[in-house]
Amino acid sequence: MFLKMKRLFSFLLLIAILGSCSEYQKVLKNEDVKAKYDLAEKFYDAGDFKRANRLLEQIAPKYIGKPQGERVMYFLADSYFQTKDYNMAGYQFERFLKSYPKSDKAVEAGFYGAKSYYELSPKYSLDQTDTDKALIKLQNFINTYPDSEFLVEANIMARELTTKKERKSYEIAKQFNTIGEFDYSFLTPAVTAFDNFISDNPGSVYREDALYYKFDASTNLALNSFDYLKKDRLNDAKAAYLALKKSFPESKYLKEANKTLEKVEKELEIYSK
Questions:
Q1: 38 near 56, Cβ under 8 Å?
Q2: Do residues 103 and 96 make contact, with C-beta atoms less than 8 angstroms apart?
Q3: pLDDT digits (tens, 9 = 90+) for 62-106
Q4: pTM of the model
């Protein structure tokens, strides 16, 4: 009995899908704007955003300046978002806000528009132009709607993007340091890059790592310097160690850093005689 009911349900569902497809193709090809609007709304409400989007694309220009225009434009923007076409979603949500700044959907449009740009942000190792754009959009949303129900999520996304940018800067500095183990000419830019990172990102999750590797790079630079530069650079390395220990007295790098400091102080003893 259960098997028969299951087969009947599957058969009825198949008929409904086929009927829907047939209706969709028919409406898609004709010029009846109202029919397209009604069917687009039906698909949108059912969560079939792909077919809703195609119909909405056709009718959106027809509803500019009309009472239903606000509804159509929001559905169009959201259908792009729901189908993960984030470039178009971001663009359409911005158009919606410019056209209907006082809409009841303004907050949602602002948030999902910003989130569209967030979704376009690439992994940290790639160019971060889209990340910069997303951060601007998210900050604008946070500033414009500080009491929004989306505020917590917006802040989380902004923090994630900021951390991604920090990681890129940190990894560049670390790469200089890694290459510097084989080519000493890279150690000076490594120290400079870590200096800039530490100065520009005081609250970064990579701050401890940057402080340690600055000390590491500074030590290697000092030990491989000409004699007339060595003393000052050894003192710079020691200062880098003290900065690490001051900020992170229980640092995960402390054991290794202490061993390296012994080398620095042993070399400095030469200049104290």
A1: no
A2: yes
A3: 998 898 999 999 999 999 999 999 999 999 999 999 999 999 999
A4: 0.84
**Angle at Cα 141 formed by Cα 171 and Cα 165, nearest 5°?**
5
Using only C-alpha atoms, the chain has a radius of gyration, in whole angstroms, of 30
CA distances 272 to 233, 266, 268, Å, are 15, 10, 7
C-alpha distance from residue 60 to each of 22, 68, 75, 105, 144 (Å) = 22, 10, 10, 17, 27
Q: In whole angstroms, what is the distance from residue 197 CA to residue 170 CA?
A: 7
